[in-house]
Fold:
Amino acid sequence: MMMRLLVAFLSLSLSSAFSVQPKTGSEAVSTRADFVSKTCGAILSSMLMPTSALADEETEVIKPSPSIKACDRDAKNCVSSANIKQIDLYSPPWTFEVSPDEAFARIKGVLKSDDYHYAIKEIDDEARYIRAYVLRREADQDEVEFLVKGDDKVVVFKSSERKEGGLPDLGVNRKRIDDVRKRGAVFELMGGGATADSYDGGGAAARGNNAFGQLKAFYGLQKGEGFQSVFEEEDE
Structure:
């Protein structure tokens, strides 16, 4: 289409150039040659310059898929389902039997219904991800993230202090996560009843009631292999 328009414009320009009152001798030849040269140069320049539409396509940035990160190893006021190798920072993911969309709607409903404590900052309905700031001692002091993984039918999450260095939260982040789960009313803890406060070593660990034990119970595995699809394995 662009090429046809340029050809038509060139034809019209040339026609106009030769339809003006003719001059005599070398002056007429020079004038026409200059006009044709300048017109062709302008057309070729426009053909080589990318249009704004093409420029927009070339600069389009693909948005990365949301994910839940682990708490820093030395974090004090943080809990995440991704910290499978650090029991004090770990809380088991949730399972559900409803549809993934229903599970996500439940989490959104809990956060939106408590707008005094939660200020939603990001919602990705397609990825089923939500992030919100949370009031503790100060407004926006903490942050929560939830990601519903439809293929695995689990919810992974993180609740943390936005700026580390404050006073100990006395378990507030962990309690907050459990409160959202209970209010959602359709979520169970991965591992069939294992709780985040049951990691006391000894008997609990012997019964497999620990982070890796929960993963084995959920997937029916013997060696804890295969859980990388839900959790990003941390470096040793």
User: Anything to note?
Assistant: The chain has a mean pLDDT of 73. The first strand starts at residue 78 and ends at 80.
